[in-house]
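Researcher: Sequence recovery benchmark, item below. Answer with residues only.
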């Protein structure tokens, strides 16, 4: 049987370690001429695009010049509908103050692979009251919900559009909505517009509205004020799953402090910050909306996220984006993977690992599981195998907004690389799909083992996963990881946990904050559910 040994983390840095729709409104079709984004099938990270924010400004200016007025209406960009699946959810884009509906120009192709994209166009001369604009969006939402009640509807908006999405969600709590809000305009009274900065100077610097008549901008700002007053008394009724994207650079509206206010009020809300990105965020060449949605596990095609069927393996460009922050480990650590061939020969690399699944990798957790990303990444780099890691529920959901645990964004990289909640049902589905599955039977307890428990297996006495693996004929590959505990023992145990930022909370503190608290039991006791015989 093939076996794998991971030679541990940070060893090179420490030489003492040896191993280491259909509405009544008009639908428009629009396609940019002459240029298009390169397509990567299933990609959730942006490849280099030939389009830019300057191109958006050019198209918006042309649209303003030829806009014949009329009521607000939906249009579907032609480049969005080439390769999406039949059960893709609907995405409704609600524009910012400019109202053009082209704010997602840089993201059309990638979003079109996984969504049915509709964009709302509000002509610059339109003066539709807020109540009628809300009715328009609401009628579309209800019509599409009645057509496909089991699929969610995404409302994506920036500044003005984000506030409009919140108003619609507050009035439709019975519909399964997912809100993706960039720099939501819910704090106008705290913005630069109320200060001494001249409005004209702001407009001149704001590329997305510089071509819009001042009268139109003032009309939209008055509508924002109306929406703010409405949300002040109705925001708590919003039950939609909400993702707030913050760049911290909105010229017109305050968003840095407002994101935390929204997070504390909304029932199901997560925040992802992209400090340093441009304004508007959706027109930043370095930002990818599809990636942000997937990394936060906000992409789903049913009533809840299915981490098996909704998962899309990372493309080469996606993988590079995820792995780049961890490349320093290759330089500073030089981790080594060893595997065993069928003839018993031990070789360097992963050639001994079965190519066809189902395969179950079973091994030990080293301290803090710092080796997990390099370990899973090596399978992609060397064998082009996506390993589905069975992970603790804290990687996917938080039942409380306080406690000692890291923010959910800390675990985004693991979910992108294929982590799934560790349940019998998920393991059954993965084996049925003939996947490569990675399991750490010791779980969090082993990952946060105590002093003196280095390399000690803290596993259940009766590992049920073996029976399931045998049922599907899965190849079981046991492995051991060594090196990291030696480093931490040598460098960290000599100091208090609080002296090391990553370890600022002790294992027992973190344990008490888990969704399913860890038993502080004697590892040598059978009552604690751990293996007492260590080999």
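Model:
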């Amino acid at each position: 049987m093939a076996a794998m040994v991971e030679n541990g983390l940070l060893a090179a840095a420490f030489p003492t370690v040896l191993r280491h729709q259909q509405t009544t409104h008009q639908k428009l079709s629009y396609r940019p001429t002459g240029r298009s984004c390169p397509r990567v099938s299933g990609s959730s990270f942006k490849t280099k695009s030939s389009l830019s924010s300057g191109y958006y400004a050019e198209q918006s200016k042309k649209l303003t010049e030829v806009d014949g007025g009329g009521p607000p209406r939906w249009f579907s960009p032609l480049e969005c509908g080439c390769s999406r699946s039949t059960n893709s959810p609907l995405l409704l884009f609600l524009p910012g103050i400019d109202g053009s509906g082209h704010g997602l120009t840089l993201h059309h192709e990638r979003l079109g692979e996984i969504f049915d994209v509709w964009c709302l166009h509000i002509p610059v001369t339109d003066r539709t009251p807020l109540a009628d604009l809300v009715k328009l969006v609401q009628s579309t939402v209800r019509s599409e919900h009645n057509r496909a009640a089991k699929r969610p509807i995404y409302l994506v908006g920036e500044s003005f559009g984000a506030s409009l999405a919140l108003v619609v969600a507050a009035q439709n709590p019975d519909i399964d909505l997912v809100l993706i809000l960039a720099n939501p305009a819910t704090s106008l009274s705290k913005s630069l517009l109320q200060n001494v900065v001249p409005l004209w100077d702001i407009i001149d610097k704001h590329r997305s509205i510089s071509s819009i008549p001042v009268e139109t901008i003032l009309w939209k700002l008055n509508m924002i004020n109306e929406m703010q007053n409405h949300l002040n008394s109705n925001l708590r009724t919003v039950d939609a799953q909400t993702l707030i994207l913050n760049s911290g650079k909105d010229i017109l509206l305050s968003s840095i402090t407002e994101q935390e206010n929204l997070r504390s009020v909304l029932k199901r809300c997560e925040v992802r910050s992209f400090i340093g990105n441009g304004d508007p965020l959706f027109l930043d060449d370095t930002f990818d909306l599809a990636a942000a949605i997937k990394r936060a596990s906000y992409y789903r095609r049913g009533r809840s996220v299915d981490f098996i069927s909704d998962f899309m393996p990372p493309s080469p460009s996606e993988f590079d984006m995820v792995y780049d922050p961890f490349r320093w480990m290759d330089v500073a650590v030089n981790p080594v993977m060893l595997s065993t061939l069928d003839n018993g020969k031990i070789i360097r690399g992963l050639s001994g690992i079965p190519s066809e699944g189902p395969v179950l990798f079973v091994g030990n957790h080293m301290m803090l599981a710092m080796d997990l990303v390099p370990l899973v990444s090596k399978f992609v780099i060397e064998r082009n195998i996506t390993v589905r890691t069975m992970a603790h529920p804290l990687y996917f959901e938080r039942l409380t907004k306080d406690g000692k645990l890291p923010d959910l964004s800390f675990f985004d990289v693991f979910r992108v690389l294929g982590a799934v909640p560790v349940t019998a049902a998920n393991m059954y589905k993965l084996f049925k799909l003939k996947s490569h599955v990675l399991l750490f039977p010791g779980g969090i307890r082993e990952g946060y083992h105590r002093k003196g428990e280095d390399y000690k297996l803290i596993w259940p006495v009766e590992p049920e996963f073996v029976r399931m693996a045998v049922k599907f004929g899965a190849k079981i590959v046991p492995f051991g990881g060594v090196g990291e505990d030696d480093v931490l023992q040598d460098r960290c145990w000599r100091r208090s946990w609080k002296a090391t930022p990553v370890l600022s909370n002790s294992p027992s503190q973190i344990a008490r904050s888990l969704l399913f608290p860890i038993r502080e039991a004697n590892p040598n006791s059978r009552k604690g559910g751990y293996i007492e015989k260590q080999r």
